[in-house]
Protein: Alpha-hydroxy-acid oxidizing protein
Amino acid sequence: MEESKNFNPADANAITRRYLDSILIEERLIDAVKASTKTTLFGHTYDSPIMMPAFSHLDEWVKNGKNSMVEYSAAAKNLNILNFVGMRENDKMNEIFDTQALTVRIIKPYRERKKIFDQIEYAKTHNAVGVGMDIDHIFGSQGDYDIVQGEPMAAQTMDMIREYVQAAAPLPFIVKGVLSVRDAVKCADCQVSAILVSHHSGRMPYAIPPLKVVPSIRKAVGSEMKIFVDCGISRGADVFKALALGCDGAAVGRAILPALKAEGREGVEKYIRKMNDELRMIMGFTGTPSVDKVDPSVLWMDGCNLGI
Structure:
């Protein structure tokens, strides 16, 4: 009753958490084997499909005074998982790349397009494994084009995205902030390598939970384009559900912030390892030997099997 009383029906984060928790998992133990969480993305093998989020603006946040952006990137390196990094000037990216984490740079939809191309080129020449754009920062809370850290944002067209894809080559280009089949198909038409299905921690009220739209997106775009997800991903069970519904990976988000603030990279590593342990445990209980074998028919909601 208390939860219902405090529930805000416009809060996309709360809606997403409710949706994630409404999905139940059946057991399939006969003939099950110990599972492996290893996965391969864009030619690199990772120890888990759990990914770091594209955080921004966290430089002086850890209690010990260390750089939070560097700390979580270093944790990604130690864990051998894919790392995302958000809004950051070129001269501040070196310290991220110096961690040797396999990093995708996510660029804001700046009005100044030269800055976009400069940041793409910088990522290419500093051993990034991918580059992308955060399209859900086009608009601000008042409906105007957003201004982030004093930088004006702008609308993005398919032709513009095609240019970014070409500029990023041979690196994969990833569009973050897709939340519809319509935009996913447009990304596929632009030869985007991957999308990150997201409502950016509820920037728009009443936004659909990302995992609710993922199965339709997967059906529309096929298997060639990678699909990642974020928003509310906080435990291994969430990652398992994401994989079962058609994702290739899932990015943990704000759930790691308390551990990052209190213990830096060590705290983040402990949190992610705990998530991965739960993922591997659920894979074992469901007869899932590897992340590419997750069967959607192990998922249930309101008495209905989601794989049928």
